[in-house]
Design goal:
Blueprint lengths: L1 H10 L35 H9 L21 H14 L6 H17 L3 H10 L4 H10 L4 H14 L3 H10 L1 H7 L7 H16 L1 H9 L3 H16 L11 H11 L3 H9 L2 H10 L4 H11 L3 H9 L2 H4 L15 E3 L2 E3 L4 H13 L2 H6 L4 H7 L5 H14 L3 H10 L4 H13 L15
Antiparallel strand pairs: 1-2
């Protein structure tokens, strides 16, 4: 060991500082200690380096702006970017456009980082004490439109994980997103907020949390009002691409009975029926109709506003089934055929007493669906015919439409005899008919 230290001492003899306390070629006395690990890159202790330093001095290191986003954060990019955003949000807005630009740049970097569940989980873990979502909530009310837009996109990424959805629902960000649906300054903000809300309520846990939350009814009302405002003629916030997103969002929210009551109070049904009659946003609007008809008051409102007439033509839709992969978090969701949804909505409406007697207009198209090779479509049509046949006048129309096919007519009649509810308006016994 002693020999080793002796060799080290001899090795470092050439690195000892010069005998003179300060050579003229050094800028300051600290440059003499250039052999230390922390002084890498400074003037070396050789005459050649001394001459070069006077002839071509090294430039001074550039000052690093602490709030500028950097790709050199590495694995700590999420936590460091959130820390920078927190510092920027605490600065007064009087700082000018520079602070807003820094917020936008850092939000873009954060979006680039939140590309997988590990990085999203890291961001959620950073906000478990409530600071993370409180920061995003404050950024949603920023005066700069792009800041609000990018913040909504970040919240959209958070909603891909269960813990993220819980924090979003508890923090009050849902109400802020619903308010931004009518943002007057930017269509991008409205669309980003609508997508974030739609992805959030697609998950059953988040939907139940919103519907059971004290502020949940306010969210439903805001979504319906935003849809009415955007769809209005000559609307100042007209955003056609946002309409199907809001319909999709409502199709999930209206599963709750309280949400349906609030939507009916806001006159959603007339707009929905008008959209169906014009064959616009067919799949999304039909989903809303199916959700509405899952409740008794929704059935009556749809029937009274002409829902049966609106979907009559859709029962014979010849569109091919397109199985499109919609990335709803981690699930693949097939788009349902228009006619399948129409038959399902008809079935739900015809459960209501008034729907059975007004369904005569649907009989030819429902009968046509009995010959469909799609089992779901056939089953929904058969159940709808069974339901509307409880009305004697409608049952007569069904049998008349099947006169050209005695075999199918006998099959439907036998189905009515098996399910005796189809004869409940008759005074005689069907078993002896």
């Amino acid at each position: 060991m002693a020999e080793h230290h002796a060799l080290l001492a001899r090795h470092h003899e050439g690195l000892l500082p010069p005998l003179e306390p300060h050579l003229p070629s050094y800028r300051d006395p600290s440059a003499v200690s250039a052999f230390l690990p922390g002084s890498v890159g400074q003037a070396a202790l050789h005459r050649g380096s001394d001459v070069l330093s006077t002839r071509s001095p090294s430039p001074a290191p550039a000052a690093q702006e602490p709030h500028q986003p950097s790709v050199a954060y590495g694995r700590s990019a999420v936590s460091k970017t959130l820390r920078v955003l927190k510092d920027l949000s605490e600065q007064p807005e009087e700082e000018g456009q520079g602070t807003a630009d820094l917020k936008k740049k850092n939000l873009k970097v954060l979006l680039e980082c939140l590309v997988d569940h590990s990085s999203i989980g890291e961001a959620i873990m950073q906000g478990e004490d409530g600071d993370g979502l409180a920061l995003l909530k404050s950024l949603l009310s920023d005066s700069e439109a792009d800041v609000r837009r990018y913040t909504a996109e970040v919240i959209n990424r958070y909603s891909t994980l269960l813990q993220g959805r819980k924090q979003i629902c508890v923090s009050g960000c849902v109400e802020m997103l619903a308010d931004l649906l009518q943002d007057p300054s930017s269509a991008d903000v409205r669309i980003a907020s609508g997508k974030a809300l739609n992805h959030l309520v697609t998950a059953m846990d988040a939907r139940d949390e919103i519907c059971n939350h004290p502020e949940g009814p306010a969210v439903v009302v805001k979504v319906v009002r935003a849809l009415l405002a955007i769809s209005a003629r000559d609307s100042e916030i007209s955003t056609p691409s946002l309409i199907p997103i809001l319909y999709e969002c409502l199709s999930h929210l209206l599963v709750a009975e309280k949400a349906t009551e609030l939507a009916l109070q806001e006159d959603l049904v007339p707009l929905l029926i008008h959209t169906l009659k014009r064959r616009m946003h067919k799949v999304a609007s039909l989903k809303v109709l199916v959700s509405l008809c899952g409740h008794s008051q929704g059935k009556r409102a749809a029937i009274d506003n002409g829902g049966l007439q609106a979907i009559c033509g859709m029962l014979t839709s010849q569109e091919t089934v397109e199985r499109q992969v919609c990335v709803n978090f981690a699930f693949n969701h097939p788009v349902i055929l228009d006619s399948q949804l129409s038959a399902r909505a008809t079935l739900l409406m015809c459960v209501d007493e008034s729907g059975k007697h007004k369904a005569g207009i649907l009989v030819p198209n429902l009968v046509q669906q009995l010959y469909s090779t799609d089992h779901d479509l056939y089953k929904n049509a058969l159940l709808a015919i069974r339901s509307i046949s409880e009305s004697p006048s409608t049952r007569v129309l069904v049998m008349k439409a099947l006169e050209d096919d005695p075999e199918m007519q006998a099959r439907v009649h036998n189905d009515h005899r098996v399910h005796l509810a189809a004869f409940r308006y008759e005074t005689g016994s069907p078993s002896t008919a």
